[in-house]
Design a protein that fits this description.
The chain contains 65 helices and four strands. It is globular and about 140 Å long. Among the domains are: about 10-60, no CATH class; about 200-290 and about 295-320, no CATH class; about 1025-1215, no CATH class; about 1285-1405, no CATH class. It is mainly alpha-helical. The longest helix has 24 residues, at about 955-975. The protein starts with 10 loop residues before the first helix and ends with a helix. Helix 14 (about 420-435) runs parallel beside helix 17 (about 470-485). The strands form two sheets. A two-stranded antiparallel sheet has the order 1-2.
């Protein structure tokens, strides 16, 4: 064995080792190869390797080359990249023992696999033609002049080589020669048909048959599909002609119906591409005029073929207009000359657009047509004929129609010409603006927004923002603004900012879609992916499809917008569009607002460029740049960001200089801001609103002390009268309202100072915020001027031109007074006597005159008309897409709407808030406001609210948020008036009904309202008047009337109702205990509702994913217990006997359900009878003995009786999806198993098992009992008299399931079903089997055989009693002992049926 060289060997040792290696003849460990040089064309395959092996010895003798296979011989590149490999090399896998020839035979499918039944023609008689002899030794050289002279036009030789042109000339000459041979004369030259000449379609898609003898017959004598060009010589043309003649003969031998049927079959079997190819072979522009008339038969077939063409090719018929002949040189306005470069060749296809437009087609079809728009986004009617100078005609598929379709605009947006791309994006922006305004709602089918988003508009706009051309970038920004921003949303939110809790807004988030959890099933919690990890794995397209804003943020939109603002410095229109886009992103969610704030240099650019503290006056009213000037939209952006959270607001105030901007724009009057008057008012208003938001967190209150004189001066100097038609009046009113909102929030903050100051000295479990810098003494001076302003407003209501202005200012005045007196009563300096006298003066001088004013009465009269609860939209916004939601319908804001000019909601909410505060302080003046609660308009509104069932969504959340505040305040005010007003006490049940009805649709952020209503109103016996004035006795009477035809359940309902009323405090505690999981959100909601500003975390409300409580919230204790112990393998308390506390919880829930069903039936109108039945069925699945408890038995019997009322029983549908259940069948299967295990034949349990077995429900429920749980038939012993529903519900209509009928027969014959064990189902089985075996309806053979078999087996039964019951059954009858009537003898019709089945003798014996 050779020794391996070591590092200590010398050169002599290495040479000696080399000689020993060569002498031993051992093969080397490496191979010496020479890489082929591809640039020199050296082979790289097997030949190259063989050549390398041959040259190996020569190369070794020349030099020593060592190649290590593990390392490459090339120097690696600095930039790593994939090595170049053959795309086919990796697929060639070879094995040592593989035979290439056998592999080829195995994988190669012969041509016979494609072509079958190939029959060769007999060519023995075909003459053999030899090439002509010439005297030239070589073929003649091609010359260009000779090629051009052989009839090849310019269009034919375009983009062809000389050789291809020569071959084409030879083909043309051969076709001409064949034409001469077939017709015996010169070939007919093609002539153009004048425009308007019509030609009938052909009878076949493949061939055309014209009358023989005409000159044109030679042209169409051959097939258009089979030409024979692939065959040699004249044999090809002859074979093609033979095939064509065979086709013609076959067509002439077929009838018209056969031709039509064959054509339909071909069209259904062939691929669309092949059909289009066949149609393309059809000569367009009409056919040649025939010299001879068509024969009668062919004329009939000609007309019939035209009918076929109209039916199959409707689009072609509409466009069946012969095209104009190609343009010629004589028609050119300028004749080309030979000296012109590239103008010596006539190109007709490129000159077609020089012609006049074809006449627009008058379509009489009612089919939908493609929408076309002009450059302003206006929809163009298809029948409108517009002039061409408008630029709306283009080289599209329909050049005669003006306008651009959405597809054509998308195509134009990808043009290489920048102006065309700008035009496309600008037009798309205008279309989006029109669609947002619902201009296309009645004329365009579908949603324009959804169509454009599905087509990829979002990515188109995002890519266009990265373009280097400012015009294109500006057009993209404008279109993006039209896509994202809803002007009506911003207008409504700005108008309601000064309402009660108007600063709070919902995030504009799409409804979260449930994601598939199949990938995480079976994994441990530690291995499951979090929501953030799943979101990161999604592509941009998937994210944008679910949420447009989130998709744009994912595509780095914010850095690009910052670059445009900071570097490109666009014109004013683009700047305003970008700011509105940022506002929409900030409204999306708190997370999006934080991303806007965290984007590097974005907010610094906004603050420095568009909110400077000093600036020069603009030279013109419309400056060409907004950089360096204050912009109201920038201040609004800062305000929207501040609503995202208190920490965000603190960053804006302290780090970005928002505090200095507030001081700058509030300290100066709008006319002193060196801006356009409207813009100055807008930016001053936004500064006050930003300050109000900061004060809503208890921040920026030090500015109040510094600017107090200016605020008081502004408060006293604002005008109370405005001339009619004043342009700036709306802006000035909004500024006054913003000032009042600021003072209201500062007052709330000052009222919390004392509580926070006391918390510093007393130990607290939780950390409290520091006391604000403003104290109660700092705000007491604001009340006199505001009260004086309110009195002046009341006096100005009588002036005709000031009514609208005053009504818009009244809510902010009332809200301030409510805030002032609510905080005053909690201060240590509170003087009760002085305060009570002051409240009496306020009531007598201001509130009573205000409530009795005719303008206020008219305003209250609009309550029901403006209610979103009483007037749900019949259809939502047609342009709203789930991924881009909005708050309002952009189709226009009528005056009679929640935020319209005639809406009473802002005034009534503020008034009820003030009255509730005043009546809590001075109970003696509460009765003076009773006429408000008893007004007819208000009563009609409340009754309509009790019948409403709103659907909670983001579209409806915003109006419902404000409307629920009005209802809550009305209920609380009525609760305070019950002890002092007998008239209000008579109507208190209506207010209690309103409170119970509104609980299921309270929105996120209103958890405190739900808790307060449940604590003080819902379970208050004083508001349930039925429990105090003969309600239980009336319930007993109604129960007696209900049970006239029969009774089930022997427990009277009157004592149950009295006991339930007595247990209302315990019932309240039970439900409040089940709301303990909402305690953190209840505290956050309480701080926001009571304006405890230092504790408020955010003025952006929680995401709208549905109401706080489900619609079936009264069943909450039962459902909670079922989820803990009733689900097999998933409960926490796997015990048979429940704790006493759980039993009491169930009893309290059943008592409350009984009260609602008897006295407040409208509260549960949103819960279907099937859902109620499913919830009550959970009682039997919670444990083995819960349903045996006496209180549970009595209450459940009472609820079952109310559920089986005919009206509710008719509405019972077990096939609809039930919330919280995968299917009712699964629940019923569990119920059957539980009954079989622990029921002991309990009659109540029997009723719940029997109810789903009615004939109108799914047969699978009956099969589940008779097929899988036959054993429970022995214990299902409910008497017929206690059946909760009529027996006819189980016997009609007759059963048609053969499987179930066989099961009926089987359980009867085997004795599993007996009358003594299960009387109800015994009668049901008899009724269905008797109707089946004696039925003579026409049925299938299988059913008839089963029917005869059952009848025969019945006759031969050894059990004579069962036999008589089956044969002599008449009708069900509950008063009979067996539950049915029977014939004494078999009726004749049944006897004849029996004779036909079992035989004559047996039939005669049965008759006797």
């Amino acid at each position: 064995m050779l020794k391996r060289p070591s590092s200590s060997d010398s050169e002599a040792d290495l040479l000696r080792a080399q000689e020993c290696f060569l002498a031993a003849g051992v093969p080397s460990a490496v191979r010496v190869l020479r890489r082929p040089e591809k640039r020199r064309g050296e082979p790289s395959g097997c030949a190259g390797e063989e050549k390398a092996e041959e040259e190996e010895e020569v190369m070794v003798s020349c030099r020593d080359v060592v190649t290590i296979t593990e390392h490459s011989e090339q120097i690696p590149s600095l930039t790593p990249g994939p090595s170049k490999k053959s795309c086919f090399r990796a697929e060639q896998v070879c094995f040592v023992d593989e035979d290439p020839e056998a592999e080829l035979e195995r994988k190669d499918t012969h041509v016979t696999a494609v072509l079958s039944r190939i029959i060769e023609h007999d060519t023995s008689a075909v003459p053999v033609s030899f090439p002509a002899f010439t005297g030239a030794a070589f073929p003649k050289v091609f010359h260009r002049s000779e090629v051009e002279d052989q009839g090849i036009t310019v269009a034919q030789k375009c983009r062809k080589s000389i050789f291809a042109q020569k071959i084409a000339a030879q083909k043309i000459a051969a076709q001409r020669a064949r034409g001469k041979g077939l017709t015996g004369g010169d070939p007919v030259q093609p002539t153009l048909v004048p425009q308007g000449t019509s030609c009938a379609p052909l009878a076949s898609m493949e061939t055309a048959s014209l009358p023989s003898g005409s000159e044109e017959h030679a042209v169409s004598e051959t097939s258009r599909l089979v030409t024979g060009l692939g065959l040699s010589g004249h044999n090809g043309s002859l074979e093609a002609k033979k095939i064509h003649e065979e086709n013609e003969a076959k067509l002439h031998g077929m009838s018209q119906s056969e031709i039509l049927e064959e054509q339909r079959r071909l069209l259904s079997q062939l691929e669309p591409r092949l059909v289009d190819f066949v149609k393309s072979r059809k000569p367009h522009g009409g056919c040649q005029p025939s010299a001879a008339p068509l024969p009668a038969k062919e004329e009939q077939q000609h007309c019939f073929s035209e009918h076929i063409s109209q039916e199959v090719e409707m689009e072609d018929v509409e466009a069946n207009v012969a095209p104009a002949p190609p343009i010629t040189e004589d028609e050119l306005p300028v004749k080309p000359e030979k000296g012109w470069l590239h103008m010596d060749k006539l190109e007709p296809e490129k000159l077609e657009w020089m012609r006049d437009l074809p006449a627009s087609r008058k379509r009489s079809t009612k089919k939908a047509m493609q929408a076309r728009f002009n450059f302003d986004g206006v929809l163009i009617s298809p029948t409108e004929d517009l002039p061409t100078h408008l630029g709306l005609h283009h080289h599209g598929d329909e050049p005669e129609l003006a306008g651009y379709s959405l597809q054509e605009l998308f195509l134009l947006s990808r043009s290489q010409v920048t102006q065309q791309r700008c035009l496309a994006l600008t037009t798309l922006g205008h279309i989006l603006t029109k669609a947002r305004a619902s201009d296309f709602a009645s004329s365009v089918r579908g949603s324009v927004f959804a169509t454009l988003l599905d087509a990829g508009l979002l990515f188109l706009l995002r890519f266009s923002l990265d373009d280097k051309y400012e015009g294109l970038m500006a057009a993209a920004v404008q279109a993006l603004r039209a896509l994202l921003v809803t002007v009506d949303d911003e207008e409504c939110l700005d108008n309601t900012f000064s309402w009660f809790l108007g600063m709070a807004t919902f995030p504009l988030l799409p409804f979260a879609q449930e994601e598939d959890k199949e990938d995480d099933e079976g994994l441990e919690d530690a291995l499951k992916e979090t929501a953030k990890e799943k979101e990161e794995k999604k592509s941009d397209h998937d994210v944008a499809r679910n949420d447009v804003i989130k998709g744009l943020l994912r595509m780095k939109l914010l850095p690009r917008l910052r670059y445009i603002l900071e570097v490109l410095r666009p014109p004013p229109r683009t700047v305003l569009d970008i700011l509105e886009i940022l506002i929409r992103i900030a409204r999306h969610s708190p997370t999006s607002a934080i991303q806007v704030l965290d984007c590097p240099r974005l907010m610094n650019t906004v603050m420095s460029e568009f909110l400077p503290c000093s600036w020069s006056p603009p030279v013109s009213p419309t400056p060409d740049r907004l950089h360096g000037f204050p912009v109201a939209a920038a201040m609004k952006l800062v305000r929207i960001l501040a609503t995202a959270g208190r920490h965000t607001c603190a960053r804006l105030l302290n780090s970005l200089g928002a505090r200095e901007r507030i001081s700058c724009f509030v300290a100066q009057e709008p006319q002193d801001l060196l801006l356009e008057p409207g813009e100055a008012l807008r930016i001053s208003t936004e500064a006050l609103r930003l300050w109000a938001v900061a004060a809503g967190y208890g921040q920026a209150c030090d500015l109040y002390r510094d600017l107090y004189p200016i605020l008081v001066q502004t408060l006293q100097s604002h005008p109370m009268r405005w001339p009619p038609g004043h342009v700036l009046r709306p802006l000035e009113l909004q500024r006054v309202q913003a000032l009042h909102t600021l003072l209201t929030n500062v007052t709330h903050t000052a009222g919390c100072h004392q509580e926070l100051q006391a918390s510093l000295t007393s130990p607290q479990e939780t950390e409290c915020p520091p006391p604000p810098s403003v104290e109660w003494g700092h705000v007491t001076g604001l009340q006199p001027p505001l009260l004086a302003s309110l009195k002046a407003c009341v006096k100005l209501l009588d002036e005709p031109g000031q009514k609208e202005n005053i009504l818009s200012l009244l809510p902010s005045h009332l809200l301030y007074l409510g805030a002032f007196y609510s905080q005053l009563s909690a201060q240590s300096s509170f003087q009760p006597v002085d305060c009570l006298q002051e409240l009496e003066v306020l009531t007598s001088e201001v509130l009573i005159p205000l409530l009795s004013h005719q303008a206020i009465c008219d305003l209250i009269g609009n309550l029901k008309s403006c209610s979103a609860l009483c007037n749900p939209l019949s259809c939502s916004d047609p342009e709203m897409v789930p991924s881009l939601p909005s708050l309002t319908w952009s189709g226009g804001k009528p005056a009679l709407s929640l935020s319209g000019s005639n809406s009473p909601f802002p005034f009534l909410i503020a008034l009820c808030y003030l009255l509730e505060v005043l009546s809590s302080i001075h109970k003696g003046i509460a009765h003076k406001f009773s006429h408000l609660l008893l007004s007819s308009a208000l009563m009609m509104y409340l009754q309509a609210c009790c019948q409403a069932m709103p659907t909670v969504s983001l579209f409806s959340a915003w109006p419902l948020w404000h409307e629920q505040h009005l209802l809550y305040l009305l209920v609380k005010l009525a609760l305070r008036l019950v002890p002092v007003s007998s008239e209000v006490e008579k109507q208190i049940s209506l207010y209690h009904r309103v409170a119970a009805t509104m609980v299921p649709w309270l929105l996120p952020g209103s958890e405190y309202l739900a808790r307060d209503l449940l604590s003080t109103v819902i379970f208050n016996l004083d508001l349930i008047t039925e429990g105090r004035c003969g309600g239980p006795e009336a319930a007993d009477l109604s129960e007696l009337q209900l049970q006239e035809g029969g009774s089930f359940g022997h427990f009277p309902v009157g004592p149950l109702m009295r006991d339930a009323c007595a247990q209302l405090p315990s019932i309240r505690g039970c439900y409040l205990t089940h709301l303990a999981s909402l305690e953190p959100t209840i505290l956050y909601s309480r701080d926001r509702h009571l304006m405890r500003t230092p504790w408020v975390r955010s003025w952006m409300l929680p995401e709208v994913q549905g109401p706080i409580l489900p619609s079936d919230w009264p069943f909450l204790p039962i459902i909670s217990l079922y989820e803990r112990v009733g689900i097999p393998g998933g409960g926490d308390m796997q015990v048979e006997a429940l704790p006493q506390a759980s039993v009491k919880s169930v009893v309290h829930s059943l008592q409350w359900l009984l009260i609602l069903e008897r006295w407040r039936d409208g509260v549960l109108q949103a819960v279907t009878p099937a859902a109620k039945l499913a919830r009550l069925s959970c009682l039997f699945l919670c444990s083995s003995d819960l349903f045996l408890e006496r209180p549970v038995q009595q209450l459940t019997w009472a609820l079952l009786r109310s559920l089986c009322v005919p009206a509710r029983l008719a509405a019972l549908d077990l096939g609809v999806p039930l919330p919280g259940l995968a299917s009712f069948h699964d629940l019923y299967a569990s119920l059957l198993s539980q009954f079989e295990a622990v029921s002991f034949g309990d009659h109540l349990f029997c009723c719940f098992v029997l109810l789903p077995l009615q004939q109108r429900f799914s047969v699978s429920l009956r099969l589940a009992l008779f097929g899988e749980h036959v054993g429970l038939l022995r214990s299902l012993g409910l008497p017929l008299q206690q059946l909760p529903v009529p027996l006819e519900q189980f016997t009609y209509p007759p059963e048609d399931s053969l499987t179930l009928l066989r099961l009926y027969f089987q359980v009867l014959v085997t004795g599993a079903l007996r009358c003594a064990w299960c009387p109800v189902l015994y009668v049901v089985a008899l009724a269905h089997l008797n109707a089946f075996i004696f039925s003579q309806d026409v049925v299938s053979q299988e059913v008839d055989a089963a029917r005869r078999s059952m009848l025969r087996k019945t006759y031969y039964l050894t059990d004579e009693v069962l036999k008589d019951h089956l044969l002599l059954f008449k009708v069900p009858h509950l008063q009979k002992e067996l539950g049915f009537d029977a014939y004494e003898h078999l009726p004749p019709i049944r006897a004849r049926r029996l004779e036909s089945v079992v035989g004559m003798e047996e039939g005669e014996s049965l008759k006797t």
